[in-house]
Amino acid sequence: MRPHHHARKLLAAGVALVATATLLGPVPAGAGDVRAAAVWQPTPGTTWQWEIVGQVREPFLDVTMYDIDLTDAVPATTVVPVPGFGSVTWPAGENAGIVDRLHAAGKVVVCYLDTGAWESYEPDAALFPGTPGWRSGDPATDVILRTTGWDEEYWLDIRRSQWGRFAPILWARFDLAKSIGCDGVEPDQNNPYGNNPGPQIPLADEKAWYLEVAAQAHARGLSVGMKNGVEVTDDDTAAAFDWNLNEECFFYEECDDLNAFGDAGKAVFQTEYTVDWVERNPAYANPATLAASGEFCADARRRGYSTLVKNEVPDAVFVTC
Q1: Tens place of pLDDT for every residue, the chain, 321 residues?
Q2: Is residue 25 assigned to a domain?
Q3: Residue at 21 is within a domain
Q4: Which runs of consecutive H residues, i.e. helices, occur in the chain?
Q5: Structurally, how many domains does the chain consist of?
Q6: Does residue 222 contact residue 215 with C-beta atoms inside 8 Å?
Q7: How many CB atoms lie within 10 A of CB 121?
Q8: Alpha-carbon distances, residue 304 vs 60, 77, 208 (angstroms)
Q9: Torsions phi, psi of 171, nearest 5?
Q10: For residue 191, what is the domain's CATH number?
């Protein structure tokens, strides 16, 4: 299965930093599910906008939740400690101040980040051991595996035996999200199974990684969604996560695999992309035409999904079901 997610533009070399920086204190890793009562747990049908590329359009839409890019939302230069690895300096993003503005407008803010892939352009990239492409083929050397299919992005080796070699770097991203005011996180690219990452990632390890991601987010008081991973979606993962975010379950005929979230009364934020549907009908290049086509919107409403029809790079354009 082709992995889906956005292709964020590369950070420009030589980004200018402001003179002062916020320094975060360490956040305990936490163990198990310590979900706080205040963690956002949306119900089916919750409205949303998914806008993780470019400047977030204002004025804001009349929706409950905005899902935006974490790196772009950093308000000012921020130094984040990474236990055992040093620290990372995150520069102010192109949407600096957006979290506060969204909160002032009454929106829930979810921040997008990768927890299952390495991106060459992120400020913490140099902390990961290995080189892109799994060139050594040696798990003792590399945790950066083969390309996900997106520019400068590679799967991480999420086999349980490898976690200690890179996981604290990713949990520090959760610390950053918490520090800038994100109410929740959308952790991406945790589903290498079947995507030829290099070494075979056992399904048991993929599921365990998803559960660890949820636990680490909850340890920081963050709401967390399960992104894709239909092959390991079950009662356990539905209980561990607060909501689900799925790409193209109608196109790939996988929506029944998400039933555990619906059965648990949890929201499923769902997207279908014009770029794939246009292969079946050229008229579907228009999101409004695709939404009105009868292909899936009635079924989405029946299932209680919060479905958007979008371009493949989730920008400001969308049509709701």
Answers
A1: 334 444 333 332 222 323 346 666 544 444 445 555 589 999 999 999 999 999 999 999 999 999 999 999 999 999 999 999 999 999 999 999 999 999 999 999 999 999 999 999 999 999 999 878 777 667 777 899 999 999 999 999 999 999 999 999 999 999 999 999 999 999 999 999 989 998 899 999 999 999 999 999 999 999 999 999 999 999 999 999 999 999 999 999 999 999 999 999 999 999 999 999 999 999 999 999 999 999 999 999 999 999 999 987 767 788 999
A2: no
A3: no
A4: 70-73, 98-104, 167-179, 203-219, 235-240, 259-263, 274-277, 287-291, 297-303
A5: 1
A6: no
A7: 15
A8: 24, 40, 28
A9: -65, -30
A10: 3.20.20.70
Domain enclosing residue 278, as ranges: 34-320
251 in a domain, yes or no? yes
Contacts of 290 (CB under 8 A, 6+ apart): 272, 274, 277, 284, 309, 319
State pTM to two decimals.
0.90
Taken in order 188, 208, 305, 265, the sign of the CA dihedral is negative
Q: Is 309 part of any domain? A: yes
Looking up tokens 């939302």, which residue turns up? Answer: 73
Q: Which structure tokens are listed for 269?
A: 């934020």
